[in-house]
Design goal:
The chain is α/β, with parallel strands linked by helices and about 270 residues long. The chain is about 40% helix and about 15% strand.
Amino acid sequence: MPIASPELSILMPVRDEAINIPIMLKMLAAAVETPHEVLIIYDYQEDNSVVAAKSIQSKYPNLQLVYNDLGRGVLNALIKGIQVAKGEFVLITCVDDIGALLAIDDMVCLLRQGCDFVSGTRYSHGGRRLAGSKLGTFLSTSANLIFSLCGSKLTDTTTGFKMFKRNRFTDLKLESKPVGWVVAFEIGIKAQLVGFKLGEVPILSIDRLYGGNSTFQPWPWFVEYSKWLFWGIRQLSKNGSAKSEVMVRIPQVTPRRFTSSLRKLF
């Protein structure tokens, strides 16, 4: 039966992710102990993600398919997911990145301890980024380096793996264009500017370990990321960085727990 009052709502915007959905759901069931629901949010009815999710939905009572009728793009999918979500906490993540999932329970711990916003980090505290396009990696590492020099307290503002308290979502006043995962960059910037209590957990990010087609488009992404990069630099310089220090938690993932998760997956 579905969880009546999940503590965590996991939002996954998708576009033709039939390959990755079954793997992601197995990994979530194996690795996440926090009571949670999974919202797969799709933009159009013909998305093969829908067929894949429905075919195994009976195995995952905490799974819900949500049609995004607000307009295409990750930002609209996020807004729609928030409207449906039941959890006190919300995680937004890509459906193809299973490596980061082992950090979820530790991110929840930071929110329980008073953080309003927790970001995964691939670039500090032992976090790592594997695979992915060379251009995407260059843009991400460059943006985060520049931000750190400008006073950013977060070490990975661009990651799409972010968790926050649902009742603080409207404080962010998001407005980025529906270009890829640029909204995740905007969230990372504004979470600092509005004074959220911040947390970070290192993650192992493995882009598209099991395949599928990426929606990465170099020029549109570069233009929109650059816009928010320069906006963020100006705002950090003008208003100062986050007032509080970032709480850091290293994932409590033992070799036995990791091996157990993989056995359940396969």
